[in-house]
Structure formats: structure tokens, C-alpha cells
Amino acid sequence: LNVAVPPPGGNVLKANVLSASSTSTVDSTTNTATDTGVAESAGVNLVSGLVTADVVRAVATAQASAFNSSFSSAGSAFKNLVVNGTPVNNVNPNTTIDLPAAQFGAGSFVKLFEEIGSSSQPPSGQLAGGTFAADLTVNMIRVHITGLALTVDAIDVVVSHAQAHADFPQPAGCPSLVGTVSGNATIVNEQTNPSALPVVVGFVSIPPQGGHDHQDLDQLSTLVVSSGTSVSDSAGTVLASSSNSTSFARAQNVCVVPVNGPCTVFASAITSQANSSSGGGISSSDAQGTSLLGLSVGGMSVGDNPPPNTTILVPGIGSVTFNEQTCDGGGVPPCSGATSSGIRVRAIHVIVDNPNALGVPQGADVIVGEAHADSSHP
After folding, report:
1. I need a labelling partner for 5 at 20 to 30 A (CA). Which of 37, 247, 307, 351 fits?
2. Among residues 191, 202, 374, 207, which one has the least CA distance to residue 277?
3. Which of 195, 295, 189 is closest to 232 using CA atoms?
4. How far apart are CA 55 and CA 129, in angstroms?
């Protein structure tokens, strides 16, 4: 908790429970240093109801070893978050909500799930004296107000701040690792207005030296997509002889482009999974673990687990592609190479080509359940 420039009256922050912890360990058997910071707030009410939440939890974890470093914010979460009267059920890292200038002053905003992270390692070719290090700062809520309408008070409030740092010395004679990974997963990526930014829900990603990122969502609802519980996850490691990454996106009871009666596209359960591994002169990426169950289009049943890149035309709408799989750099699986490879998997991909009576803009592009993974190692 950090409150800067608070106005009088005690209306900046109210909370029932505030707790924080920090845990650091150094494991001599694995040559690993780990630092985890946790900050949790309950019954949060900021600036007389501008931002409220039942629970706000920040988790920052940094890890460094004799050959690698990484960071993760997995475990960070909100419960029943409301910003300026609007429920916010799905929060991606570094989400910024601008506030009305007439009420809060020009340049005022609410920033949610702010992540500031970095990892470093000795330069290539250095054999001694270097350091593997990782840092992460997580600020779950930051309210920045330049001037309230009635009082002209300026406010800057941070709730649930967690910070972690870890470093480990480079063993003499051991060069830094040369492999890399990347991975990301998204529950929904919805572009319905070409002039506006996409609606992205449940996005997670990892840095090139590996790590772990994770989101759990109770439910989601956008302009053209709704679903029950969903999970997105991405994890990767870089070792002396190999690099590996895996990402997945899961959702239940998915409805895309709802109409009076059945959904245009429905799935009872989807999992998009992307896996990549490189090392020993071989690199390969695949979609093992991907599944699509209970599919229907326009109320008509479609068989479970359709083959990759199955496209069905939808009269009056456009098309839907199930189990879309593409290799990095183009082409279709199997995805392979000598030193690097990658794959992107999309469970449901709806493209609206035609004018329609449903109110969905022509040109809309909707992706549900996307996972990407790639790796490289000489």
C-alpha cells in the first residue's frame, strides 16, 4: 500500500484487511535463489467508491540460478473488481482505464495489474564474474488523479504492491545459456471494429529466458463472446542442452456470436495447446493436448476434435475455422527445424465477411482459445 498526496477527510482508501509477506530461499543443491513477495488487500474502496474490490492479491516471484533467471506474477488476482461503476471481470497485465477529465482532471487514470519485470545474464562469451538476475514489481491497482472536480486534490494511490529480486553468481568457466523460448496464450482476441484496439482477454506471456505466467477467469462476456470458467498458461525453460516451452488456453461453454436461440458457434469445452522443444540439432513444435468438444455451428452438431484447419462456411456471417494450426514462418504442422521452431494453435476462429442482421460489424475477426510456443537452441 502506498498513498501519496492524500487529501483530507480519509476518503482515499478504505480496506478491511491488509497483509504482506516476503520469502527468500537459496538452495545449494540446485544452485537456485528464489524470492517471492505477496501483498493482499480485502474490502478495498478507493476514492469514495471510484475503485472497489473484495480481494486484491499481488504476487511477484523472481528466480535466478547458475545458468538462468526468470520472473512470474502467477497467483495475482482480483475478486469482484469495479472501476468507476463498471465491473471489470477480465484484467490483462498493464491495463489502463482513462478517467473523465471533467471529474478527475486531465491525464487521470486507473492502472490495473501493472507488471514491471526484467531478467539479465552475463554477455555471450563471458566465462566468469557475471551474474544471473531477475526483478519483478507488481502493482495491482494504481489510481492517479490530477485534480478532483470539487477539491482540486491530486491523488496517487497504489494498492497491493509486491516486489521480488533474485540473483546468482556465474560459476567460473560456465558461459551463459544461448537458447531462448517464447510463449503466450489468450482466451479471447476480438477485433470487431477495425478503427479500435482489439478486446483481449486472459493474455499471458513469458520472457525469452523462460518463466511462468497464468490467469484464471470465473467467466467472461464481450460483445460477441461469452464463456464459463477459463484458464490461460504459459511456461518455458532454457537449459544447457535444450529449450522448451508450452502454452495453453482452456474454456468451457463457449458461445460465439449469440443470436435468438442457439449460438452461431458453440463449444462445451476447448483446449488449445502449443508445445515447442529445441536441442541437439533438432527442433520441433506440435499441438499435442489440443481438444475441442461439443461443437456446433448454427445449432447443428459438429464432430468432436475436428482435423487441423477445418473451415465451415456460415451463411449470412462468413466462416469459422476449428483447430487452426500454423507454424512460425508459415506452413502447417509438423513444425520442425534444425535449431528453432514454433507453432500457433487457435481453437475457434470466426471471420465475419458478410453484412448481417446480428449487428456484428463486417470484417470482425474473433479468436477464442489461442496458444503459441516457440524455442531455439544451437
Report:
1. 37
2. 374
3. 189
4. 44
* In the chain, where the domains are located: 2-169, 180-376
Neighbour tally for 297: CB within 10 Å? 21
CA dihedral 219, 83, 12, 78 (to 10 degrees): 20
Cα gap 239→179, rounded to integer Å? 8
- Cα separation, 178 vs 377, in Å, equals 7
Which run of H or of E encompasses 104?
helix 101-104
Residue 245's closest CA among 199, 209, 192, 195?
209
Contact 189, 167 (CB under 8 A): no
Number of Cβ within 10 Å of residue 29's Cβ equals: 5
What the block records as the C-alpha cell of 160 is 497491493
**Sign (positive or negative) of CA dihedral 327, 330, 332, 334:** negative
**b/e sequence 218-246, b meaning 16+ C-beta within 10 Å:** eebebebbbbeebbbbbbbbbeeebbbbb
> Which distant-in-sequence residues (6+ apart) come within 8 Å of 163 by Cβ?
37, 60, 135, 136, 137, 138
Query: Using CA atoms, how far apart are residues 370 and 143, in angstroms rounded to an integer?
Result: 31
Residue 25: partners with Cβ closer than 8 Å, 6 or more residues away: 33, 34
- Residue position matching grid coordinates 543443491: 29
Confidence class of residue 10 from pLDDT cuts 50, 70 and 90?
low
Neighbouring C-beta atoms of residue 85, cutoff 10 Å = 8
Residue 182, class by beta-carbon neighbours within 10 Å (0-12 exposed, 13-18 middle, 19+ buried)?
buried
Position 2 pLDDT exceeds 60: no
